[in-house]
Amino acid sequence: MKQTLRPRRMRISEGVRSLVRETSLSVKDFVYPIFVVPGEKVKEEISSLPGCYHLSVDEALKVAEEVVSLGIPSVEVFGLPAYKDEIGSSAWDMTSPVQQAIKAIKEKFPELVIIGDVCLCQYTSHGHCGQLCGQYVDNDETLKLLAKVAVSQAKAGADMVAPSDMMDGRVAAIRQALDESGYQNVSIMSYAVKYASAYYGPFRDAAHSTPQFGDRRSYQMDPANSREALKEVALDTAEGADIIMVKPALSYLDIVRQVRGTTHLPVAVYNVSGEYAMVKAAAANGWIDEKRIVLETLLSMKRAGADMIITYHALDAARWLAEK
Ligand code: PBG
Ligand code: ZN
User: Fold this and answer.
1) What domains appear along the chain, each with residue ranges and CATH number?
2) Quick check: 318 and 71 in contact, CB under 8 A?
3) Apex CA 51: angle with CA 295 and CA 302, to 5°?
4) Parallel, antiparallel or unpaired: strands 132-133 and 49-55
5) What are phi and psi of 177, to 5 degrees?
6) 248: cis peptide before it, omega within 30°?
7) Which ligand is nearest to the CA of 217?
8) CA–CA dist 305, 268 (Å, integer)
9) Of 128, 136, 127, 124, residue with least CA distance to 87
10) Active site includes 247?
11) Predicted ipTM > 0.85
């Protein structure tokens, strides 16, 4: 007798499905990005990122409180400084919004894991991620500045620093500077695999970090390449990275899978601004079921191999997961 193979038996009820489910999504997977600005009592919605805000430090504390109450383990802090110059010196100014926010949040919520984004593009007058030499970003001069940014964030109380600049050798430079300053326990989440992507558009509006000339293709990766991703991972691992990030997430899940297969380090993905904005726009038009789309998308990132997800959906997703 011909026997029909019946995989549907493993889908017959929620109980069975839950027993055989391979991947899970939890509030403990999330990192919530916040944008801090100078001033007081500032809470302005970012038009390109509906549901996300420019926050002064006092307002950022309220958001941190919400993050903690939802059980989200971590925030990543981005800043818009009070001033910009050629070398981005407000990036390591202890009175800048990022350093002030890190300090205030750490004091009030010591258990919350605070990650500082280490880059210069929000702080330079030209909007590039490093110090210029003519039209070109000078790699080795930039390393010295990035090290200062990382140390200033560690000094403010950051648990981790996350360099997003894509200079060569930055992980080693930052590790050395942190160690020399007594911050051996501050970890480095490296944006090891960061592509030159159109998906960062809404973030650049939010962070006022659009390059004033040219683009970032001489430092961020070519979207056509995957072997290069593995090379970046190997280098950052050798330089002492603690966590490897792949960014963007959604259209790079093949890369996440490959990176997962080659590193023993935890893998983070950044569900970037353009990915978020597309979902929000379609949802606002009633074209998609936002909750289901978001939870399915985040789950797919876990399935591809991510251990953690940096996402603007974190607050909503945390609430939806708690309902289930
Ligand atoms: C800055 C930085 C960017 C993002 C994080 N850090 C933008 C860029 O490289 O242009 C993108 C985040 C997002 O789009 O959500 N180095
Ligand atoms: Zn940058």
Assistant:
1) 24-323 (3.20.20.70)
2) yes
3) 25
4) unpaired
5) -65, -40
6) yes
7) 1
8) 9
9) 124
10) yes
11) yes
Q: Are 193 and 39 within 8 A, CB to CB? A: no
Tens-digit pLDDT profile for residues 115-154: 999 999 999 999 999 999 999 999 999 999 999 999 999 9
Rg (CA), the chain: 20
pLDDT tens-digit profile of 48-88?
999 999 999 999 999 999 999 999 999 999 999 999 999 99
Residue to probe by mutation, ligand 1, list 124, 209, 215, 247, most atoms within 8 Å of CB: 209
Of the candidates 84, 79, 82, the one whose C-alpha atom is nearest the C-alpha of residue 118 is 79
Neighbour-count burial of 240, counting CB atoms closer than 10 A to its CB (0-12 exposed, 13-18 middle, 19+ buried)? middle
CA dihedral 51, 309, 99, 164 (to 10 degrees): -110
> Which ligand places an atom closest to the C-alpha of 216?
1
| 8-48 confidence digits (pLDDT tens) | 999 999 999 999 999 999 999 999 999 999 999 999 999 99
pLDDT digits (tens, 9 = 90+) for 90-102: 999 999 999 999 9
* Burial bucket for residue 306 (CB in 10 Å: 0-12, 13-18, 19+): buried
Cβ < 6 A, ligand 1 pocket = 117, 119, 121, 129, 164-165, 200, 203-204, 209, 216, 272-273
Q: Is 132 exposed, middle or buried (0-12, 13-18, 19+ CB in 10 A)?
A: middle
**Phi-psi region for residue 43, left (φ > 0), alpha (ψ -120 to 50) or beta?**
beta
Three-state SS at 284: helix
Mutational test site, ligand 1, from 119, 123, 313, max ligand atoms within 8 Å of CB: 119
H or E segment and range at residue 201: helix 201-207
